[in-house]
Predict the 3D structure of the following.
Amino acid sequence: MLRAIVLSLALLIGIGTIIPLATEFAEAGSRKHRKYKKKKVKRYSKRWWRAYNKQKQVKRAKAKRKKRARVRRARRSRIRRARAARLRRARLARVRRAHRAKTRRTAAKRRTYSRSRSKAKRSARRTSGSRVVAQRQMTSTPVPTVLPSGNPAPKSWKSEGVVQGELQFTVKDNSGSQLGSAAIAVVGPAVNDAPVYNSRVKTVGGVATTSLRRTVIDEMIRENGWVVNDYQKEVAGQKVYVVVAQAPGSNNQVENRMYYFTEVEGKIYSVATKAPDKASDRLEEESEKVIVSLQRRSAPTTQVASNRTVSNLVANEE
């Protein structure tokens, strides 16, 4: 009987313990935590003063750490500023030294140049007499006043001498003001006996007009000009090749350039003229008169311009 009573009590106690635990862990939702209230300390008691003093010590230690950190940061910034200032001063010193050295070198060069110039001037004064005599001897050669044909040049054409194998003239109007300029030169020998492989190729004295046009194009490239037109015409019953070009002249004006190529006695002559637009027609008429004079040459040549290099004038077949 006693054993039954003990077993029943143990069973009741186990069920009473298991059921609440199973219910607590089986329910959804957050668990409830037990809140523990701090034990109140009596104000101004011995324990309260100990906590108060400890809190003050912690605050003072924290303030000291912050102060030391500020001091360290300020020291580092001062060091960085001082280092940057030293670097700037060193850089400025290097720049000043380089500038002073450059100034000294420039002054030395100027002194050397002035000394050499003064020496050159002194030597030029000593040799000025001999130079004047030499120039007079060089310019004492007679300047031709006639055309290569021996006939006199037009009245408005004034000879300027021979420059680089060209017989140059200045063209003036009736009032004496300059209209333009002209030049007569020997381009090269004619090759009349050269075989003709293409009947469509235009030639002057056996030389293809493309080669003659190339010489004008090269000259225009040097003078920043351009070729406008080229054609063949008859002057006094003989074919003449004409190239029309333009190039910048004085006072930013465009000059008309006329190049005439004709064959006379086994040589190819060129007559080149430069003139503004308003005087180009008159200069064209006088140029054709000069070409007629060359074609009808009846007198020996008094002074003919030297032949140009004719390597670039070989007949090129198209």
